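Subject: complex prediction, re-run

Hi both,

The earlier run crashed halfway through, so I resubmitted it with identical inputs.
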Amino acid sequence: MANNLTSFGSRTVCQIGLVVRDVEKSARAYAALLGVDVPACVLTDPEEKSHIRYRGRPTQGRAKIAIFQLDNLSLEFFEPVGGPSAWQEFLQTQGEGAHHIAFPVQGLDEQIAVLEAKGLPLLQRGDFTGGRYAYIDSTSQLGVVLELLEIQPAPGDKSPG
Amino acid sequence: MANNLTSFGSRTVCQIGLVVRDVEKSARAYAALLGVDVPACVLTDPEEKSHIRYRGRPTQGRAKIAIFQLDNLSLEFFEPVGGPSAWQEFLQTQGEGAHHIAFPVQGLDEQIAVLEAKGLPLLQRGDFTGGRYAYIDSTSQLGVVLELLEIQPAPGDKSPG
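This time it finished cleanly. Structure:
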């Protein structure tokens, strides 16, 4: 029977991620299309802070990122730098293009396990200030990488206990 | 200065379109992930009805489509059949993957002209019951095909004049 939720608890796409060769160039082109200012391009944290794991191993791979917040989702551009990563793999095998679609989740580890049990293995994961993410190796089944995105509550949002 | 709208008047992504080799297979896999029933797979109208133009020419190219309506957009899978099309071109050059992101517009012809003036040419266009669409050849600039999607008011919505 149909229900209203994915197996990982969400039916909202909160981000589309595109891998590109030159994030500044893409950010300028997209800003011109949107009629907005060019956003700052920022580098993902180093492995020591992000705890990135690509196909199960630590890596020096990072990305330069530009983010456009649209009305119903964010459009994010990733330029791979520094070493192996899901972004670099995509650019080398597919060229530039839409790499992932993200769904918000709670309980990232549990949701990764749910998808692994469905034959959808983990491709890459990492932490960032304010949250953490997992890319699922779902291209052969779904035509695109799924991202599970867990935003952590700000410290002030935590109950004191 | 920044404003709140794209040059074509929208900041909402209403559809993500994926090109796949076997739409029934993709629909089954995605339905299992979502926990919903497998949707019907439908064929786009023939050229006589859709008035499809791919790179400026009529074509017998069509697509078998499956649609998943999520909370904030639709996720649509396209299997190219029948002849040349933007979908077939993508499958042949890129393989399976996310092909386009769609923005709702009003006044399709005018919006196509706006983008052409920005160096973003038309790739494909066509009509369907209830609306019409245009794919913009924006991959080299934006990393993805843009779709402009114009939904026409139902007959009952028209003013009698």
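The beta strands of chain B are 15-19, 42-43, 53-54, 57-58, 62-69, 74-81, 97-104, 122-128, 131-136, 145-151.

- K.
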